[in-house]
Amino acid sequence: MADHGPPPFPDDVPTHPLLVIDYARIRAGDSGEKDNLWKAATELGFWYLKNHGVEHEVNEMFKLGKAFMELPLDQKMQYEEGDDGMQFGYKAAGLHTADEQGTLDATEFLDVAKDDALAFPKAIHRSYPPLVADAFPTTLTPFVKRSIEINETLLRVLGKKLGLEDGVMESMHIKEERSGCVTRVIRTPPQQGEPQVLEEQALLGAHTDFGSLSFLHNRQGGLQVLAPGTERWLYVKPLPDHAICNVGDALNIFSGGLIRSNMHRVVAPPKAQAAYERYSMAFFTRPHDSVVLRPLTKESVVVANKVKENSNYAEEERGTAGEWLVRRLKNLRTKNYHGVDSYRQHLGTEDYGRITGVAVAAV
Ligand SMILES: O=C(O)CCC(=O)C(=O)O
Ligand SMILES: [Fe+2]
Q1: Counting atoms of ligand 1 from 1, which one is nearest the CA of 246?
Q2: How far apart are CA 273 and CA 52, in angstroms?
Q3: Given 41, 234, 255, 353, which residue has the most CB atoms within 10 angstroms?
Q4: Interface ipTM
Q5: What is the pTM of this model?
Q6: Which residues line ligand 1 (CB under 6 A)?
Q7: Domains detected in the chain
């Protein structure tokens, strides 16, 4: 019998609503829509993005991702990312931990560097399997270019709303510079069990994203958010041709905490969808490697000559974007897991108490 793929997202599971931002209106400079984006970015840090115009490239990426994931494991393992914080290539299931007990994650990643996609046929970070390398001109590079354009536009609006001088936000994300910007395809295997039990098992552990903005494409459920002021993880319902955008830690830090980098995780898709393998795909915009992660708002105000001499704005040193990534990735690797403390070493701006609180409550 022909397999028609997973059934639709069920109507009867609780979900968390997201604001819908119309990219066409943002592009047109609509000030009401820019206000909506600011509201979404500061209150939840997640929103749907419609009319982004990347539907074709997204479809092609899903096809490429599936073709790659279906390669034999030993072929994929030749491109494994390793335990030193490199994050391009292939990550096999179980090589990341999903919680402080060291539970193994259940996700496979294909991670393709923006730098390799833009420099093709030159390799900047690494080489990829022939199936992926062949798809740079037709699929990967077009998707990366469109994704960059969208995230740059959204970042410009958010930078302006923050009160940054023109060009300051852009200068943190220079696409010609080496960065951790990455296109990722994720696969998780079919899950069996009681929905209530499955809903408590993270296949990709609770986290905040490392970079500035994530441009995510979901077709099945499985993504959950822990909304501020709530104690319950809720699914985000995928909507056709709507991207899910979310803020990462770098933007949270740049904004002095004003723009929210919200915790999320991936569990089994709800109900009957759980019996199917799950694919998702994202482009992560991150500051280029040499950018020091610190609040930018004071700097912009200084530029504008508006700051008072004795501003007591808290400034915390987080190192560079490149160092931030390596630290977080290294400590997430199963091989580098030495207990709760090493797991905590991978954390970003998450409120760690919230993660443990929820995990304990779920036992
Ligand atoms: O697969 C998803 O829906 C989310 C993936 C995710 O959060 C990530 O890779 O950072
Ligand atoms: Fe994420």
Answers
A1: 7
A2: 26
A3: 41
A4: 0.99
A5: 0.93
A6: 184, 186, 204, 209, 216, 218, 222-223, 264, 266, 280, 282
A7: 2-352 (2.60.120.330)
